[in-house]
Specification:
- With about 280 residues, this protein is of the alpha/beta class.
């Protein structure tokens, strides 16, 4: 198990130019858990991750890691505790899997220091954890989308961080590769105790994989808690301006959001109840 670190924001305000994106945000992220951030486009999800990883300086308020201000922490020191996988990271042309994963060791190396046996061991462990050892001699740009995501996660693991922030790690992946990546992150959380914080657009995958959900609306916190507490019809309406029905997922038991579009017949409460697993069990 990894050490537990607490990441929090206090009255955090973020923005670009004259535009505020996040305003007055107070959050404490659960250590050793999977937290998923959801919300409409441009509500501040990615901006929040950028600030948590020291890439964006707050206009006001603070980001705290174990009570210490992130933006007053030296970059290398922070990178030994916290790793960020941005949305659609750019792969250097022709780089092999082994070389890319090895770049995750940079925070642990001093100027002019040599590669060590400890570096070798960290890279090997990261490749093994992400099931990419057999890919290590291949060029990253030759891999499938799911394989590339696993390799980028391996690079983050080679940093040997206890906190992993991921901005839309399933973007551009088909459903099977989305599940592959999310299952991998869940394995890392369950076996290593890694704290996972990620942004997802798919509400049903967010509800299925999250221990905790954070819903943002117009740059402010709308709701935070378990998937059952957060993923409600009222939340979907307030955050996305959309009507829906929320039932129990028959596979995971977590909330399952059924969107109601303008061109679809409205699902009544009775119909939603009839579709739920509890109704099916009661009718047997």
């Amino acid at each position: 198990m990894t050490a537990s670190h607490t990441l929090a924001t206090e009255d955090l305000t973020l923005g670009y130019g004259d535009r505020a994106v996040i305003e007055g945000l107070d959050l404490t992220l659960a250590a050793g858990r999977i937290t998923v951030i959801v919300g409409a486009n441009a509500c501040g999800k990615s901006t929040l991750l950028r600030s948590m990883s020291r890439l964006l300086v707050p206009r006001a308020g603070r980001v705290l890691l174990d009570g210490k201000e992130v933006h007053r922490t030296p970059a290398k020191e922070l990178a030994r505790t916290l790793g960020l996988l941005p949305q659609s990271p750019v792969t250097p042309e022709g780089i092999t899997v082994l070389d890319l994963v090895g770049r995750g060791r940079h925070p642990h190396q001093r100027a002019l220091s040599r590669w060590t046996a400890q570096d070798d061991a960290a890279v090997a462990a990261a490749l093994e954890a992400t099931h990419t050892t057999d890919l290590m001699d291949r060029a990253v740009d030759e891999l499938s989308g799911g394989q590339r995501q696993r390799v980028w996660i391996a690079m983050a693991l080679a940093q040997q961080t206890d906190l992993l922030l991921l901005d839309e790690p399933t973007t551009f992946l088909d459903i099977s590769h989305q599940i592959e990546v999310l299952d991998l992150l869940t394995d890392l959380n369950r076996t290593r105790g890694t704290t996972i914080v990620m942004v997802l657009h798919d509400l049903n995958l967010a509800a299925r994989y999250a221990d905790r959900l954070i819903a943002l609306a117009s740059g402010r916190l709308h709701a935070a808690g378990t998937p059952e507490e957060v993923m409600t019809e009222d939340t979907v309406r307030a955050v996305y301006g959309m009507e829906s029905r929320v039932i129990e997922d028959p596979v995971s038991g977590k909330p399952l959001v059924l969107p109601i579009g303008r061109h679809h017949s409205t699902v009544t409460d009775a119909e939603a109840a009839a579709a739920s697993p509890q109704h099916a069990a009661g009718s047997r």
